[in-house]
Design goal:
The protein is built from 4 helices and 6 strands, in the order H-H-E-E-E-H-E-E-E-H. The protein is an alpha+beta fold. The structure holds methionine sulfoxide.
């Protein structure tokens, strides 16, 4: 398992993201086997998604909410997350999440109050980043991160988080 006590020694976001990239495999106890029963594989992934949100929230004080939405049909369903209670279902095309789902693109929102149609699950949120999780170019779900800071996310976050999400997808055997 990742050593949470080390987190205090990491100060810049570059250090934190690099640490996560280098140590991500330690986060996961389970190993997926090639002929795994799909029901068990899904349960393992659920645990892994939950642990991922916990480690991200623990690492970054500036993150007020970290969580997954899982896509089915043209809707997004709330998955494992850390933070305040959130909207359980979001339609494709609605809000930041639904827009990222429709476009299958990362969206960085420096000020959510200027994003037309932003869905305010937590009125304290001021900025947000949403990354698509693709499996064989199909949208499996999204990683959504909110912050109470304005302008909390930039190209550095986008670049690191896209790498982290891709590595995470490899680890949980979505490829
Ligand atoms: N703000 C998101 C909704 C999800 S919450 O932030 C957890 C949106 O506009 O889609």
């Amino acid at each position: 398992m990742i050593n949470n006590n080390l987190f205090e020694s990491l100060t810049t976001k570059e250090e934190k993201y690099s640490y996560l990239l280098d140590n991500m495999s330690l986060l996961f106890t389970f190993v997926q086997t090639s002929n795994e029963d799909e029901g068990i594989a899904d349960l393992k992934r659920l645990s892994q998604l939950a642990n991922f949100t916990a480690v991200m929230k623990e690492l970054f004080d500036s993150f007020s909410w970290v969580g997954f939405y899982v896509a089915s049909g043209n809707k997004l369903y709330l998955g494992p997350f850390q933070g305040k209670t959130a909207c359980e279902i979001i339609d494709f095309g609605k809000g930041v999440c639904g827009t990222a789902a429709s476009k299958k693109e990362t969206i960085v929102v420096k000020n959510v109050h200027e994003f037309n149609g932003h869905i305010a699950c937590d009125t304290g949120s001021n900025s947000e980043i949403v990354l698509p999780l693709l499996r064989n170019n199909e949208l499996w779900g999204l990683l959504d991160i909110d912050s109470y800071n304005l302008n909390n996310f930039d190209e550095t976050d986008k670049n690191y988080l896209e790498k982290i999400v891709n590595l995470f997808l490899e680890i949980i055997k979505f490829k």
